[in-house]
Amino acid sequence: MFSPRTAPGSGRRQQGRTTGRKSVSSSLLFSPRRTPLSSRSTPTRVQSHAAAEWINYDVQTFGSSLPVKVMEALTMADADDQISVKVNESGWAWMVCGERLIIWKICQTAVAKLSVCKELQLPSSEYNYTADLVAVTSNAPLETAAVQSISVLAVAAEGTARLWPSLAQEGNYTETDVDLGDLCNFVVAVRGGSFVLSSVRSRLLRASVDSSGKLQYRALLQGQGMLSGIGRRVSSLFGILSPPANDTLHSVLWIGGASCLYTLTSSSLSKWEVDDNYEHQIFSWDAQRALTESIADAIWEMLSVCFALHHWWKSISQDELSWSLCCMFSRAGLVVLAAAWHPSDTPCLAYFCLVTLQDNGAAISDQFIVEVTKYNPPFLSEEALQSTRLVLPRSPGSTAFLYNEEMVFACSTGTSRGGLPDEKISFNSSGDGVRGGGSCANLPVFFSQNSGLVAVVARESASILPETMEDSLCSSLVAGPEVSAMETPTRSDPVAQEDKTKLLKAAFLQFCRNDLVGAQTVTDELFPTDGDGEEGAELDGVVTRINLDLVDDYPASDPRWAESVPDESAGFPLTSLIILHQLEDKMKAHGCFMDFLLQVGLLDRLGQVTVRSTPIATRLMLCEHAEKLQAAMVLKNHHTKHPELVNRAIGIALQRNNTAVPPSLTAADVFFREVSQISSVFDCLLEEEERSLKDNPVDSVQWAEVVLTVNTIIKDILQAAGQYRETKSSMYRASENASTEPEYIPWTASGGVSGVRTVISRQHEIILRSVYPHADSELRSALCEQLVALLDIYLSGYVAQLTSLQQQRPPGAQQERYNSLEMEYSQRRSELLAPLLDLGQYQWVAALAEKYCDFDILVQMCEQTDNQNRLQHYMAKFADQNFADFLFRWYMEKGKRGKLLSQPAAQHQQLASFLQSHQHLSWLHHIHVHDYRSAHRTLYSQANMETRYFVKKKTLLALSKLTVLASDLPEDELNKKVDDIVEQERFLLHQETLPRQLLEEKQQNPDTMPLLSAYNLIQVKTHPHTHIQTHAHKYPMFAQRRANEYDFKKALDLLEYIDEEDEVDTDSLKCEIFGKALKRDDWSSGDGTDDPLEAAKDSTFVKILLKLIQEGVPLQTYLPDVKELLDLDELSSLKSKPYFEFVLRANYEHYLQAQM
């Protein structure tokens, strides 16, 4: 800490120093990456702590005795002198006492053969010095560097920097005033013999020695390097955030092996890449936003298991959560120490948490581990919390040591499944205190005022298992084989599965007693890595059996299992306390077992087992056991609050399973022992609930309370299980090369008679049918809130199943099963939410429908409430899931085309895209937005595709012509399109002008008559009493009874509309039309005249010829050959009349000549 003082003296610190100014140092402690020493020190027990009753740790002296100068400084120090010590991983240590700086090399033997110790004089300062303001560097590795090659830099808080180029020359130094703009709080040695200086307000300077031996410095600019100069908004895209104006720098950490510098402020964690001459920022991670919610959730989870209160932690906001940070580096990653508290907590405690982060190189991973330690002192002030620091040996990196002046607290980081229990080691005896620390020789080393350098080491004989579980596990092995590395069966000796279970249990015990080598030897013999598939299945069975034995373990150390006790209803609080502790011990044992499987290499070899007649991945089965332990703890808390209800449910569960209760035990003892059957209580709670609803009158208090209580119990149990599954997912994650796993059905989503899904569905029905109709508004609101929480759990189970199927390899391997389950999920989701929608519980319906993307329910809700703004909100929120397309389809199916086409301008583009597959409506949208070109294209395309109805085609062509006329097309293009439409309308005119009498005779409605092709129209006009076939379908219609020259001329005109696709020979058809025309007249005689032209002038044939001539049709090429006409079968009756051929040839000749 920095605190102002009076004017400095020449030697010893003056007394009467004031401490009125607030400390400007931070609770965050970064230390460089730890490199183990070539020789490990041999600590001996500290005499002053020999009588301490620590269970799992010893405090032992570290290295040789302290140098004389250090002892002298401690002896001469005033009572109010601030002493600060730092232990460096390289084996160097330095102590600041007043303005004296003493640097020494820690000797790794009990007796110092050659000690190096130097005392340096610090520049005067108005603030207290700390060891954080001193850094030591060398061009050679510090572990082996010669004294003369070591440089030292010390900086006063005000910025006065004193550099000793060589530690061998204490009196040779240079002094420079460094402008940090604020008080200096850290000095760190980095690459190239340079240093990084930092200020409280996050300003960083790079300092180095020039050729003349003077200290030169420059600023490290935010985002310097390839991203320098870009703005805050753009730089945030690359993970670099500009620091807030009031940001406080808490820690600086140098990782020499990776040449990376980390800076931690009150809002962010930044990473810098540092070379000999340059540096640039890699990222700036928003630590406050990312960690606040996770830390609050972890604290809430811990409190919800142990206590009935503190539920505000679950929904706390970032602004409401106060926290302090500190960080170290280990093999497991960056470990952040956070101290969080809440003013509403009574008493107000500070919860210290350890968060392990993974640096992926360019960013911090979204996956991190939050471990709430058991160190939660009363919250006094932020300054008091800042005195707690962190030491973290690099390997194994799973045990952290929190320390302040009065104590060292050993705890787990949560990165390992097992570990020794948390333990507090006090240094508060008279005159004693912890003045600093660090990691050296891979041990946590602290400087004790009374004992000097001490190391906190785990006792070799200490087991990481809780004592009760250790005793129980040993008892289960009494009848089993003695296990040692020499006595394990060889691979050629067959071992029964029961013996393998006992042998693996024994290996587990060896692991818990820190005999990893022995445990590894046993497991390698039992389950060799080159074993066959049958052995793999056996491994799954043995592992599952052992873990099940742990969670269902009999509490051997509990005397109540051997001696009778009074009935629990007598009110002994010890009963529930013991049960809860038993469950906590089982959870610790499960964590140890998971760590054992990981360390001996069995975890990644696990496959699958069969449970509830369904295969499940073994690792997920192990997770299920832990989830049930978590659920049992929550149920035990409710058992304490609602003993009568829970005891009755427990009694029903035990009775159903035919489980007897010994006289010395209570039903709760027996039930909570078999944790794996914890879910059996749900159905029993519902049975008790239905009995209470039936026995109590509707207007009684008990009638409603039992439903609310049962809802709360089931909800809290299932939520605790789900919370564990989510927060501990990394413990049970499959390896990258794992084989395909079966579909995952969580036990919280089990079906069957007493399955969780069945229970929630049944409770859904009880609430809405039996309770809700009789409840007042307040009770209805509470019931709906609880019901929605239960439905949330119900639906999340389906999501877990579907996700597991999506992850099958190869992709789509279970597509049929996935589709079936998705359909079932959608159906059940609708069935559960629809009743709430009918009851008008829109707030709760929206919450679930939004979370689980039930678009149908969301649209129905918006339609019922006529809330178009919410619909637009959903279109934006679910844009990537095509909510707009769903809405448009919904409008189509419900016939609400007016609403479909009246979308606001923001949705026009999406609507146009949707209507591309619905062209019969898209043109209306185009007209609405004045896009007449697109409307014309759509209408014209629709008209060309219409082959069924005459009136529809005619209308589409007319609309197409109107829209093209209204468009802004160039005149030439517009005229061309209009001409094309007019030509088609001319063709339609042939059908439109069919005699109404003909249509009426054939019962044809002009508005619904079919569209006739050119060929069909020719048939209508020329073939009497024949059937007609349309392109789209066959439709019987008799042709006109008596066709005249106009009909035949129209038939000839229609020939040009016959397409090649019709596969009709137009020349033959033309010949046939003329043949029909010839048959309309009687050619038997010339009516007394010999002039063939006069004789034929009134014939239909001649009248057709005259019309053709009138229209300028060249008869020479148009008319069929006379011989072709005479060869027609239809004219066979006329060919027998010589006069007919004479007249025909004469008229042919005349009219052809006349046109030439």
UniProtKB/TrEMBL annotation:
Compartments where located: Chromosome, Centromere, Kinetochore; Nucleus, Nuclear pore complex
Chain intervals with Low complexity compositional bias: 9-18, 25-44
One GO cellular component, as annotated: nuclear pore outer ring
Keywords associated with the record: Centromere, Chromosome, Kinetochore, mRNA transport, Nuclear pore complex, Nucleus, Protein transport, Translocation, Transport
Principal location class: nucleus
Record flagged with keyword Transport: yes
Keyword match Glycoprotein: no
Stretches assigned to the Nucleoporin Nup133/Nup155-like C-terminal domain: 792-1014
InterPro entries with a match to the protein in the record: Nucleoporin_Nup133/Nup155_C (IPR007187), Nup133-like (IPR037624), WD40/YVTN_repeat-like_dom_sf (IPR015943)
Pfam family, one: Nucleoporin_C
Region annotation (Disordered) ranges: 1-44
GO molecular function, one term: structural constituent of nuclear pore
Origin: domain of life: Eukaryota
GO BP of this protein: animal organ development; poly(A)+ mRNA export from nucleus; protein import into nucleus; system development; transcription-dependent tethering of RNA polymerase II gene DNA at nuclear periphery
Family according to the record: Belongs to the nucleoporin Nup133 family.
Subunit structure: Forms part of the Nup160 subcomplex in the nuclear pore which is composed of NUP160, NUP133, NUP107 and Nup96. This complex plays a role in RNA export and in tethering Nup98 and NUP153 to the nucleus.
Function summary: Involved in poly(A)+ RNA transport. Involved in nephrogenesis.
Protein name per Swiss-Prot or TrEMBL: Nuclear pore complex protein Nup133
